[in-house]
Amino acid sequence: MRIFLLCLGFFMAVTGGISLVAYLNLLTVGFSIQEFSLFLLQRIETYMFLIGLFLIWLIVYLSKTEKKSLNNRKKY
Asked: Is the whole-model pTM more than 0.85?
């Protein structure tokens, strides 16, 4: 299950990140930073990127805390 969530998070982060980089071309068209930021907040790719990063962080963090708790149990 952990591997599936890690792959899902990676897929979402990569898909969202590639789209966000592609949207940087809007700045050369004449969008201001404020217009660009509002545009990004309306796109689902932004949220896919953030959710993907959160999933990756969560899986890595949970695996480290589980290893620490297993090491603490072995000492007693």
From this structure: no
Residue range 22-41, pLDDT digits in tens: 999 999 999 999 999 999 99
- The number of residues making up the chain comes to 76
DSSP summary character for residue 32: -
Distance separating alpha carbons of residues 33 and 2, to the nearest angstrom: 38
Q: Report pLDDT digits (tens) over 36-70.
A: 999 999 999 999 999 999 999 999 988 777 767 66
Look up residue 1 and give its DSSP letter: -
